[in-house]
Amino acid sequence: MIGVVPVPTTETVVARGDGSARGVITKDVTNWARNQVIELMRSDTALEVANQIRLENPPTIAVIDKSRGKPLREAVRTVDITFGSAIKARALAIVEAELARAIKRGTTQRSGRLSNLSNWRWFYSRGPMPTVGGSGIPLGPGDYLALRPENVPYATVVNAYVERGARITLKRKVRGGKDAHGPPKLDKFGFLEYAARRAQRHPLFAPYYVSVRYTDARPVAGEVSKRKRSAYLIITPRLGRRRR
């Protein structure tokens, strides 16, 4: 086995609004030989796979140098590994519950259409939304599930308003633990981002990412935002990716 010599590292800590932080380690391999970089990519990937297996989240799909079936020991350019292959109905219910809770917490209810989950619909990247059985819905590389608003073309605008309003409240005087200028705020997030972060904390989402996506390719019917971009929640599989 080729030895890998120690190299200087730097750590960047990115603070988040929920009080957590994400550490990013960047390794300086400027003077490394090609075979050393390749060996590091392979060893780092093997370590990540072992860690995920210990968390009972085994890999399901491995794409080595853009080819399935190629062994890790032969990787020379890229390694993409998917952890978790099928998402359960319970996980989707968690996202829906967190969304409804975030909307009610961050907005003042008028018609109630926005928080009514019958006005939100799941979309599956592979085609028609399948019935969520005991085996769940398969999610491989490039697949996603999206929860989009229906019959509420103002959802994106309201989400942005909540986000801006939450930031503005930082300069307002709060009495008795409540904001006298409006409903409770969402820690500097719109209701979509807040729901995504809350859902992500659940153990069922260890193999997945829950995030917010904006698109003008397929906006909600009647979208009222100026840019005609619609925001929605998206679930994608967590990939273990290494590149040299």
Helix tally? 4
Strand content: 25-35%
Give the averaged pLDDT, no decimals. 77
Fraction in helix: 25-40%
Distance between the termini: 18 Å
Largest sheet: 7 strands, antiparallel
Secondary structure class reads alpha+beta
**Count of folded domains:** 2
The topology string of helices and strands comes to: EEHEEEEHEEEHHEE
List low-confidence stretches.
Answer: 1-24, 168-183
CA-based gyration radius:
21 Å
* Strand segment tally: 11
* Approximate shape: elongated
Describe the overall structure.
The chain has helices at 34-54, 89-106, 155-168, 191-200; strands at 9-15, 21-27, 59-64, 67-68, 78-83, 86-87, 120-124, 137-138, 145-149, 208-215, 230-243. It is α+β, with helices and mostly antiparallel strands. It folds into two domains: 9-84, no CATH class; 87-238, no CATH class. A hairpin with a 2-residue loop joins strand 3 and strand 4. Helix 2 runs antiparallel to helix 4 (191-200). The chain is elongated and about 60 Å long. The protein starts with 8 loop residues before the first strand and ends with a strand. The model is unreliable at 1-24 and 168-183 (pLDDT under 50).
Break the fold down into its secondary structure elements and pairings:
Layout: E1 9-15, E2 21-27, H1 34-54, E3 59-64, E4 67-68, E5 78-83, E6 86-87, H2 89-106, E7 120-124, E8 137-138, E9 145-149, H3 155-168, H4 191-200, E10 208-215, E11 230-243
Antiparallel strand pairs: 1-2, 3-4, 3-5, 5-11, 6-8, 7-9, 9-11, 10-11
Helix pairs in contact: 2-4
